[in-house]
Specification:
By secondary structure, this protein is of the alpha+beta class. It contains six helices and 13 strands. The chain has a single domain, classed as Deoxyribonuclease I, Chain A, CATH 3.60.10.10. Helix 2 crosses helix 3. Keywords: Endonuclease, Exonuclease, Hydrolase, Nuclease, Signal.
Length: 277
Amino acid sequence: MTPLRNLALLAAMTAVLAGPVAAEDLKVMSFNVRTITGPDGPDRWDMRKDLFADTIRQMDPDVIGTQELGQQQGDDTVARLPKFTWFGRDRFGGHKDEHMGIFYRKDRLKLVKSGDFWLSDTPDKVASITWGNIFPRMVNWALFERLSDHKQFYLLDTHFPYRDTDEDARSRSAREMAAWTAKLPSNVPVIITGDFNTGPESESHKALTASFKDAWSTAPVKDGPEETFHGFTGKPTKRIDWILYRGVTVQSMRTITVSKDGHYPSDHFPVQADFTL
């Protein structure tokens, strides 16, 4: 099957599963890009950047929370998808390292305000590291307004530490995010995207779902495997990429498994949720 036919079939199947997408639906994607510096051989960024953009084009999200994004990857993507733009500092406060970059459709959403904070004992200190982390960990956030009806929502995007020994740091990070979002206006919906590097059985998930719902667990329509990390094999083993929400209604949730000639746009499957805002 040709790549274009593969992607077209994916879009058609999505439409059948989810039904017609209403104009008021909000499509939110979470996508771990896979770092541009990884020693990935045939799966290096130059070999998959077109498929990465094609996947987004076919799924047609309004907003995307990414992880491990390099500045070049962000710029390559918007060059191929000019209806999108992206923003965010990297985890050291500049643009030379990994970003939790947020992409959005300029013709659908207005960026009202944005910011970031670090997952540490000093969240306002750029690049701060505590809790045994070996790299800074952070949250990129934005308040968006939908142009069609002026409804607003917050989006937070994050990437938790990955080592088995980081479970306490992940739990602390989740509690910090829960406390931060508790201070937001109660009448404005909040959506969280991220690679949490832990499963739904974890303390991190428990801490966040005390005040948020998990789109995979609650969506009335689901498509694709539950697990998301596959290491470029196409055989996922862990559900570590989540979309959480409050103040909206989830209509459908899908794990996107598109590939081209046995290669994938990332070592994670992206996930996308459709919400009624």
